[in-house]
Amino acid sequence: xxxxxxxxxxxxxxxxxxxxxxxxxxxxxxxxxxxxxxxxxxxxxxxxxxxxxxxxxxxxxxxxxxxxxxxxxxxxxxxxxxxxxxxxxxxxxxxxxxxxxxxxxxxxxxxxxxxxxxxxxxxxxxxxxxxxxxxxxxxxxxxxxxxxxxxxxxxxxxxxxxxxxxxxxxxxxxxxxxxxxxxxxxxxxxxxxxxxxxxxxxxxxxxxxxxxxxxxxxxxxxxxxxxxxxxxxxxxxxxxxxxxxxxxxxxxxxxxxxxxxxxxxxxxxxxxxxxxxxxxxxxxxxxxxxxxxxxxxxxxxxxxxxxxxxxxxxxxxxxxxxxxxxxxxxxxxxxxxxxxxxxxxxxxxxxxxxxxxxxxxxxxxxxxxxxxxxxxxxxxxxxxxxxxxxxxxxxxxxxxxxxxxxxxxxxxxxxxxxxxxxxxxxxxxxxxxxxxxxxxxxxxxxxxxxxxxxxxxxxxxxxxxxxxxxxxxxxxxxxxxxxxxxxxxxxxxxxxxxxxxxxx
Length: 504
Hints:
InterPro entries: EmrB-like, MFS, MFS_dom, MFS_trans_sf
Number of domains: 3
Number of strands: 0
Membrane topology: Multi-pass membrane protein
Protein name: EmrB/QacA subfamily drug resistance transporter
Distance between the termini: 24 Å
GO molecular function, one term: transmembrane transporter activity
Structural class: mainly alpha
Keywords: Cell membrane, Membrane, Transmembrane, Transmembrane helix, Transport
Order of helices and strands: HHHHHHHHHHHHHHHHHHH
Strand content: under 5%
Largest sheet: none
């Protein structure tokens, strides 16, 4: 392998480590929440904000971060974001109060908001060849996806051996490796035209994404009848509409609205959002099923997600072989059908099904994710102009993030509604609050019949939610077959080379 090629793949490895760190950070906190409640004297509201502060900052600052990278240098901002991610991780680890931890988590979210789109935006610089770029995209997105199930495993092991701050200190060595490699191996790149940053657009986009994300997080907590949540969402939608109005008139808009005229960008982004429904549906329910029905601890719950990682790795390896031969349309249809099969198998779960069925269907789900995610991302990336690679990547990731947040609220509502409907006479607080509370009440009362009914109600809710995911995946397969079109000459509308980005 030539020295230049070796440098490219080493740089990609460093970016993959950075993205793995972000994926880990999304879920690693979940296993530490009970410990944080005791050590930091955190109430329920504070525990929710430990996760919410990160999510909100991530959503609010992604678009401005992408535009700033285009304007001032993607490598420069990516390097700064990685350093900030490491420093804020240290601040999280040594936080001595809930307020300090919430603030540090918000800064961590800002750093992640810059790292995600800019690490994607430098890939065309490193890999101008379309085939190599698609392979790089597969590695990039797979590293993020693998980090999600690894979070509970790594977090559970660390908590069994160290104090809760270790789940954040884990980020530091990984960030150091990523930052050094970016500094030494990634070339600087920026837009050829040094256009001014659209400050009003940046503020409006941040406020709109912040309000939309917070509104749906609040709906997940308060329910769909909460008027305050809907007022926040309405204000966010109005702000976002104002943002789009301004983008049509701004001399140097924050985002390229022409991307929405590209079928490949729109459908690629839509497919990424839709696959998030299946992914978040699994992450939202399966750990609860493991702990409340199968009776395992947090570490055991994380370890039982390992088959999904195996399926994901297999799917991502297969996609590199299938895409050049079959094209994006066939791979997307096949991937969504695999996802539909996995969620359908999951929807057949019963209280006494045991772990074997779950291991099978999450493996199938992982394989479907490995097929769909890199293909959809490559499809969308094909129309990102060189001038706006950072802001275009940020737009894609911001839409994906918003879709995931809305998906969790929708799927959570489906599960809770079915759970409460199957509780019968037990449909009362605190049992109706969720499976964890219901199991705790039943075990405290030493009432086997109550425990069985609560567990059955949760499995019913999980099954209904997974049927919804299966229907969405099947609809996505049909959409891919109909709308990912063949190009002139019979070539598939597969991911292709974006314009090469100016390297400084």
